[in-house]
Amino acid sequence: MSAVTATTINAAGMEFRELNDRIAQNAEKDLVLRDVLGQRFLAAGRKSGGLEIHGVPGNALGAYLNGAEITVRGNAQDATGDTMNAGRVIIHGSSGDATGYAMRGGEIYIKGRVGHRAGIHMKAYKTNIPHLVVGGGAGSFLGEYQAGGVILLLGLGCENEFPVGYYCGTGMHGGKIYIRTAHPPKGLPPHVRFRPADGEDSAVIRPLVKRWCALFGVPEDDIYTQPFQVLEPDTEGADVQHYTANR
Amino acid sequence: MIHDYIYPEFEVARDYDKCVVCRACERQCANEAHVYKEKYDKMTCINENCVNCHRCVTICPTHALKIVRSGDTYKRNANWQNWIINELVRQAGSGAALLSSMGTPEPYPVYWDKLLINASQVTNPSIDPLREPMEVRMRLGATPGTKPQRGADGRLKTQLPPSLNLSVPIMFSAMSYGSISYNAHSSLAQAAQQLGIYYNTGEGGLHRDFEQYGGNTIVQVASGRFGVHQGYLDMGAAIEIKMGQGAKPGIGGHLPGKKIVEDISRTRMIPEGTDAISPAPHHDIYSIEDLRQLVYSLKEATRYTKPVIVKIAAVHNIAAIASGIARSGADIIAIDGFRGGTGAAPTRIRNSVGIPIELALAAVDSRLREEGIRHRVGLVAGGSIRNSADVVKAIALGADAVYIATGALLALGCHLCRSCHSGKCNWGIATQRPDLVKRLNPEIGAQRLVNLVTAWEREIKEMMGGMGINAIEALRGNRAMLRGVGLNETELNILGVKHAGA
Ligand code: SF4
Ligand code: SF4
Ligand code: SF4
Predict the structure, then answer these.
(1) Which residue, by CA, sits nearest to atom 4 of ligand 3?
(2) Which domains are delineated in chain B?
């Protein structure tokens, strides 16, 4: 996004609805928002036009995002990219709980950490494959109910332990979680398998690492100091009959 | 060794004098209950396979068939009834939870049948709907309230919040593509458009063939978020957030991978053969404040052009829950009673969780009025509305409109065999098998739905006329038009009606 052609909106003291009206009125344009302070739902469903946010956007930033690119020069709050379909969200800080909830396409790159329930219920269909790349660690329930898509957790700064809280991948039945760590997870659910990344996995991991490093100015060599592991659903034994037909 | 043999619940009775061995019943029964014996050139049957869907009975050209309930097979026992023993045996054999479909068949009280409608005599003349205009249109949504609102310039604000506008206060409630067939969805969509009402996609996304009916479509957003994207939200006339379902409160949905065939996979936007799991909760909603966030994210994404419905199951404390939802920014609350249908639900949940819609509706309407916020939301009641009298009673108890689903399926041929979870619906409704789906002709299906709702509309007008009411709005929440029979003091209090004779 070129700062020269971008339109600037000063968001100080503006209610979310008014601010979103302004953003919607500039559907095609590149926008810079200044002094953002907790306004929710920014750029919900936005198709095109870049958006650079200075300050802290509120919950549900880029919900249902449909192709636009959002850059946050700071932290984001909860539910970033909720049910997003296409586009890109780049956060130069950390992001809160439920980041990437039910994402079904597009990419989210986060420099720092994510809260609980990140990437929960992500899904994929044909070429629509969502990617969530996180620089730091994650809270509990990462990838819970994951049905598709890719979560890559670099765990920078968490090298001494498994970089995810409790219940990682609970209910996972599709997709993959890649984690840069030397430690096995604690209390993994029985239907989730943990194994070292292989060549095929590297083909997915490497371009994402490259992209993340380029976005946040981190040398790639700093990333490959630790091995990558994979969490994926274990389909064997998944056919357990939980229900029996009744009248 | 223990043998688990459960004596068949039904027996296929064939009148061999009438049977011409055309083998139509054999072709029509997806449960393979009819078998042709070549050696004897004779039909025979496997009673165990029969679910009593009446397909063969209806189709047999000589009316040679009937299905009879087999006699109780265990010793008579008022406590350990036949079905209770059978369920227990099934579980002892399988170690699995029991799965059922459609609404609970258990004999819980049906309050509609204990409410009677008023009619005018002498003092307040009744109206003849054939000769005088009767208004049954209903605007469904939030209203600004009773106080006129003025802008900064002193002028009256006349812009109303977005709403649904019903030609008659009946809508088809959520049934996903996946739980029911393409042809069933097509029938509902066409009928909704012809009737000037709405049908509901359920949580399975919107098939692209049905986008043309968008103006009469409510698009649903459930915890699994299947098929939800900007285009889907833009397509619908309203967006419904599914928090709960009457038949299985507190339980999510699970469409097994084997039912995710190509077309359904495209609509839900998940790969073929993967399970479609809707978790019980929305994992971003733990409070009314969180619900408000989802409501407003949907409003923001659609720039406040369409109403947002929040659908909940009728459970304990429903009035307090509804009060919270009315403050969440939702435009419409849909309450689903525990007798409502389902494509599959754990038997124990279906039969034991939730409360009747009549009590829930009355409690919610009363509470919202007491708190002075009834105008903030439209109220929809569902969960076994069976006929036009139920509709009139629901509106008199405080609903703006009703949702029907089981009733709509019955119009499409469903015989309430409660076997939807088998995926072998002989009527082409709760199935994805192409040979079965094609048994339901969508044009005929739509026509039958139009017939049903038109007939109900006529009856509603007759009942309104009898009460001396010529606009359905005047019936809404008008509980003076109802009297209870055989109800105790507590029930009457909750329903807010007097006993008959009083
Ligand atoms: S459809 Fe009727 S007549 Fe034909 S084989 Fe079956 S029972 Fe006999
Ligand atoms: S399952 Fe239906 S079609 Fe088959 S025998 Fe029974 S009633 Fe007839
Ligand atoms: S939809 Fe089909 S399977 Fe379900 S109850 Fe009706 S007839 Fe039976």
Answers:
(1) B420
(2) 10-96 (3.30.70.20), 138-142+165-470 (3.20.20.70)
DSSP annotation string for B24-43: HHHHH-TT--EEEEGGGTEE
CA within 13 Å, CB half, B432: 17
**Mean per-residue pLDDT over chain B, rounded:** 94
- Does A145 contact B293 at a Cβ distance shorter than 8 Å? no
Question: Do A57 and A37 meet the contact criterion of CB atoms below 8 Å apart?
Answer: no
Report pLDDT digits (tens) over A204-214: 999 999 999 99
* Buried-exposed string B99-136: b where 16+ CB fall within 10 A, e elsewhere: bbbbbbeeeeeebbebbebbeeeeeeeebebeeeebeb
Chain A residues lying within 8 Å of B229, measured CB to CB = 64, 66, 83, 85, 104
For chain B, what is the radius of gyration of the CA atoms? 24
Going from the Cα of B12 to the center of ligand 1, the distance in angstroms, rounded, reads: 12
Work out the average pLDDT over A34-51. 95
CA atoms within 13 A on the CB side of B36: 13
Closest alpha carbon to B467 in B417, B378, B392, B410: B392
Tell me the chain B residues in contact with residue A243 when contact means C-beta distances shorter than 8 Å: 96-99, 346
Taking all residues of chain A, what is their mean pLDDT, rounded to a whole number? Answer: 93
Q: Name the residue with the closest Cα to ligand 3, atom 8.
A: B417
In DSSP terms, which residues pair with B278 in a beta bridge? B253
Q: Which ligand is nearest to the CA of B63?
A: 1
Q: Which residues of A touch B271 (CB under 8 A)?
A: 124-126, 148, 174
Question: How many CB atoms lie under 10 A from the CB of residue A138?
Answer: 28
Those residues whose C-beta lies under 8 Å from the C-beta of residue B251, and which sit 6 or more positions away, are: B245, B280, B345, B346, B349
Residue whose structure tokens are 């200075």: A54
Q: How far apart are CA A63 and CA B401, in angstroms?
A: 31
pLDDT of the residue at A3: 53
Confidence of residue B270 (pLDDT cuts 50, 70, 90): confident
Q: Name B312's bridge partners.
A: B335
DSSP letter, residue B258: G
- Residue of chain B nearest A241, judged by CA positions: B96
Its ipTM equals 0.92
Of residues A40, A123, A243, nearest to B97 (C-beta): A243
Q: Which two tokens stand for residue A138?
A: 């994650």
